[in-house]
Design brief:
The complex is a heterodimer of chains A (788) and B (263). The longest helix of chain A has 28 residues. About 3% of the residues of chain A have low confidence. In chain A, a hairpin with a 2-residue loop joins strand 22 and strand 23. Chain A has 788 residues and is an alpha+beta fold. Chain B is α+β, with helices and mostly antiparallel strands. Chain B has 2 domains: 159 residues, Uridine Diphospho-n-acetylenolpyruvylglucosamine Reductase, domain 3; 95 residues, Enolase-like, domain 1 (2-Layer Sandwich). Chain B has 10 helices and 12 strands. In chain B, strand 4 and strand 5 form a beta hairpin. In chain B, helix 3 packs antiparallel against helix 4. Classes of the chains: A alpha+beta (788), B alpha+beta (263). At the A-B interface, helix 20 of A face helix 10 of B. The structure holds flavin-adenine dinucleotide.
Chain lengths: 788, 263
Amino acid sequence: MSVAKPLPHDAARLHVTGTARYIDDIPVPAGCLHLAFGLSPVARGRLTHVDLAAVRAAPGVALVLTAADLVRPADCSPSAHDEPLLAEDEVHYAGQPIFLVAADSHLAARKAAALAQIDISPLPAILSISDALAANSRFEDGPRIYGRGDPDAELATAEIVTEGEIEIGGQEHFYLESQAALALPQEGGDMIVHSSSQHPTEIQHKVADALGVPMHGVRVEVRRMGGGFGGKESQGNALAIACAVVAQMTDRPAKMRYDRDDDFTITGKRHDFRIAYKVGHDAQGKISALVFEQFCRCGWSMDLSLPVADRAMLHADNAYWLEHVRITSHRLKTNTQSATAFRGFGGPQGMVGIERVLDHVAHVVGRDGTAVRKCNFYGAPADRSDQGALPPGGAAASPQSISAKAIYNGTRTPYGMEVTDFILDDLVARLESSSAYAERRQAVAAFNAQNAVIKKGLALSPVKFGISFTLTHLNQAGALVHVYQDGSIHLNHGGTEMGQGLFQKVAQVAASRFGVGLEAVKITATDTAKVPNTSATAASSGSDLNGMAVRAACDTIRDRIAVFLAERTQSDPTDIVFADGMVRVGGLEMPFAQAAKEAWMGRVSLSATGFYKTPDIVWDRIRGTGRPFYYFAYGAAVTEVAIDTLTGENRILRADILHDAGASLNPALDIGQVEGGYVQGAGWLTMEELVWDQTGRLRTHAPSTYKIPAASDTPDIFNVSLYDTPNAADTIYRSKAVGEPPLMLGISALLALSDACAACGPCYPALDAPATPERILAAVARARGALP
Amino acid sequence: MHNFEFVKPSTIADAAAALAGDEAQALSGGQTLLPTMKQRLAAPDTLVSLTGIPEMQGVCIGDDGAVCVGGATTHATVAAEAAASFPGLAGLASQIGDPMVRNRGTVGGSLANNDPAACYPAGALGTGATIVTNSREIAADDYFQGMFATALEEGEIITEVRFPVPEASSYQKFLQPASRFALTAVFVAKYADGVRVAVTGASEEGVFRWTEAEEALSANFSADAVDGLSVAADGMIADLHASKEYRAHLVKVMTKRAVEAAS
Ligand SMILES: Cc1cc2nc3c(=O)[nH]c(=O)nc-3n(C[C@H](O)[C@H](O)[C@H](O)COP(=O)(O)OP(=O)(O)OC[C@H]3O[C@@H](n4cnc5c(N)ncnc54)[C@H](O)[C@@H]3O)c2cc1C
C-alpha cells in the first residue's frame, strides 16, 4: 500500500528543476492582453476627478476601465457583495483598485497605470483598533459573545485575579508566486480561467456573475499554486474577474499577475488582534473564571472576517477547561486592506490569547508554565492537594468529593462540544521526556543565574485545533476517477495543490484502493468541469475531504470490477483483493491492467465520481453552540531561545516538536508541513512586522522592509516527530489534517521569549507580538519594573 | 528606466571628461544607482562606468602605512584583501548586504551615495580617512554633509580612499533584517593619539562622530568608559523599523560592543 509511505512530493522533481508550471509559465495565445490596476494612494476619500487620458494614450494600451465602464457590476467578495472590482465613488483603503489597464505587455500596463491623474477629497480614515472602537465602526451590529457559567461571579470570589492585554500583529502570506490569473475567451461567450486560487469554484461563481453567464459558461483550472496559506482563498477573485471581463469585452486572452509590491498593497493579510483578559485562579494556577475581549481588525470589507473571528473565539480555550468563561469578539471595520484567511484562520490569534493567559498566570503564581498548563488541561485531575483524585465516574464518591467542586476538569468546550479525543496528557509527557524539558529548565535557570546580558528562555505549549469548516455545508467534497483500458488511472478531485502535498497524499489513497503503484495514477489539475461545487482547499480539510471522496470513487470502480470478475469465477465479489498490482478473486489472478482491460471488454463502466460529507457536525454560530468540529488535531512544542538584554536581539536555539497527524498518510510530507508551520508561526510572532503609516499606507510592502524567516532562521536543533496514533474519528486511513495546526506550535517561541524576558526581573514582561528586538527590550524593562 | 548612453573609459582622465558632459553620471557597482533609475528617481543621459579603470581597483598599503582602496573596489575585494592589514575595515566590508551587493557594490559608490544607513561612511569617518578624488583630497571630517549629501562636486570622481590603520578597531552593526542595512552601527578605532567613534544608521544628519565617547575612550579604552554617557533621542531617525529612542539606545550598546571586540 502506498499510504503511510514517506514519498516525496509528486512535483518535487519539477519544482527543483524549474519545470513545474505556474500561471505565469503557461504559454499564452497571440494577442494576449496584460492587466494592471491603478491603485488609490489614500486610505479613505471621495473620488472627485479621475483623468485617465494619459493612461489611454500610453504606448501599448488597448483598454482602460473604471467602475463606470463595466457593463455590469463586478463584485469580488466571497459573500457579502461589498467589494466592487473597481472603486465606485469612494475609496476605502490605500491600495484599492480604482481603474484597470489592459496593454500588450505587463510592463506597458504598469507604466501606463502610473500616468493617471486622480483627485480624491480625503475623508477621515479609521485605521487602528482604537479608531474603530471610537467610531463604533464594525461588522455585525455588535460584538459576538460566546461563553458559559458565571465568570463575573467567579471572578469576584477568585483567590487571585490577573489582568492584562496583548497586541498580536498581522502577517503577510508571502506566497512565492504572487496572485495571478489568465482568461481565455471561448466560442459562444464561454470562458476558461486559469487561476492561482485555493477556491476554483468561487472563481467560477464570481467570474460567471461578473460576465452575466451561468456557471456552466465558465471553466476554472488550477494545476498548482506557488504557496497559498489562505491568501488565495478569496484574494484571487479580483484578478480572475478582471481578466475575464477584459477577455469578454475584447475577445482577447487576458492575463494578470501582481507585482510583489502591488500584491502586498492590494491583498488582505492575517487579522491583527488585541486581546484583553481577566482571569481568576488559585495559587496553583488553576483557572476558575476567564473573561476575554478580542478586538479584531478586519479592514474595509467583510471578506471572511466573521468566520475568522468566530474561529478565534473557538480557540480561546486551546487545551484548557474553562468552566466559567466569556469571550467577546469585536469585528472592527477599518480603512485598511481587507484582512483575510491565513493558515489557522483566526485560531492562532485566539490561541495566542489563552497561551498568554497561562503564561501570565504561571508568572503570578511562580510555577513552571508546563505544570500550570497541565493542571488546566481538559479532563486533568483537578489540582487539589486535600483529596486524592478519583477516576471520572469511578469509585463511589465520598461525601467530601461530592461537595468538592470537581475532582477532574471538565471535558466540554465553552461552545458545548465534548472533547472525546484528548491525547495531550500523553503527548506532552512524551515530549517533555524526549526534549529533556525538566533538565533543560534547570539548565536555563543556571545559565541565567550566571549571565547578566544574555538570558535564555524555555517554553512548552500545546495545540488543540478543531478540524472542519465552521460553515457546516462546506464540509463536502467530490472526486472523479477514470480507469483506462491499460490500467492507468486518471485522478481528479476538488482540492487544490499549493505545495502542501495534497495531490500526492490523495494519489496514495487511490493507488492503495486499486493496489497499484503510484506510477499508475495520473494526478490532474483541479477543474470545475470535472468536479463541481467544491469548497476551498482550506481549514486543513484537503486530504480529509478529498481523500474520502476519491476513496468512494475508487471503491465504486473496484466494486464493478469485482462483480464482473466474481461472476466469471462464480465467487463472492467481496472476496476480491487488489494488491501488489494484482487482482485476485476465486482462484483467478491477473494484473490490474488486465482486469481493467477485461472489464472494459465486458462493457463495465470504469469511470466514477465519489462524494463525501463530514458526518456528525452541527453548529450555530450566533448562539455559539454545537459540534463545529469532527475531531481535534493535537501537538506540542518546546522552544528554547536566547535574548540579548541590551538590544533585544534573539535567536531560537532549539525546538522539539511532537505532532499528531493521526496515522499519517505520508510522514515525509506531514513532517514538512509541521516544520514549515512552526517556522511560519514563529516568524509571525517574532520577526514579521507590518507597518502602516499615519495616513494608512502600508510601508512594509517588499522583502526589503518585511522579513520572513528563511531556511537559515530554522533552529539549529530542530527535532520533529509525529505522534503516530490512528485518529479516533473515522477519517481517511485514520489520518489527521495537518495543514494549519502546526503553525500554532510557533506560539512556544513567543512564550520562550517571554520566559527569557521574565528572567530579567520580578515583574511580568507582557511581551507583545511580533516580538521584535525593540519590543523585547521594552519587555525586559517591564520585567525590571522600569516601564509600566 | 529611461534610455541612456553608456561609456566605459579606461582612465580617470577619460572618465572625468565624460562626466563633464550634460546629465552624465558615474556608474560603479550599480547597486544603488540602477534601482534608483528603475524607479525613475534618476534619469542620466549618459552613464560613465568606472569599473574599467585599473587605477581605481584593488587594495594596497600606502607609504604612510594607510590602507588605500581604489574607488571602484568591491566590498568583497576589501573584505578579502584588507583582512590581514586592517581587519576592522575588512570586517565592515564583509557585513555589507548580501553576496551580490558585496561583489558588485564599491567603496566609491557607497561614499558618494552616503546613505544614512550605509556602512562605509562609518568606516571612513571612524578612521579619519582621506577621500581622494580626481581633483583633490578631502578629509572625512569635511566630506560628510548630512543624509545623501557630500563635499563632492558635480562630476567629481572618488578615485581612492586612504584609511589610516588603527591599533585596534571594530565595526558593530545591528542589522535591519529585511534589507540588511544598518539599523544602527558603530565603528570604533583606537589610534596612538586618540579614539574615534563613528555612528551610522542612527541620525537624521547621517553619519556622525560621538565625541563624548571618543573623549571617554581616549582616556580609558574600555567598554565601561562610556557607561555614564547617553545619547539623546532627539535628531535620531524614527521610521518603520525602529523608534528614535531605540536607535539612541543602540548607539551606546554598539559602541561598547565595538570596544570589547577591538580590545
Ligand atoms: C540589497 C542591498 C543591501 C545593501 N546593504 C548594504 C549594507 O548593509 N551596508 C551598506 O553600506 N550598503 C548596503 N547596500 C548599498 C550598497 O553597498 C551600495 O549600493 C553600494 O555601496 C553603492 O556602490 P555602487 O558601486 O553599487 O554604486 P552605484 O550604485 O554604481 O552608484 C551610487 C552613486 O554613487 C555615484 N558613484 C559611484 N561611484 C562613484 C565614484 N567612484 N565617485 C563618485 N561618485 C560615484 C553614482 O553616480 C551614484 O550616484 C545595499 C544595497 C542593496 C541593494
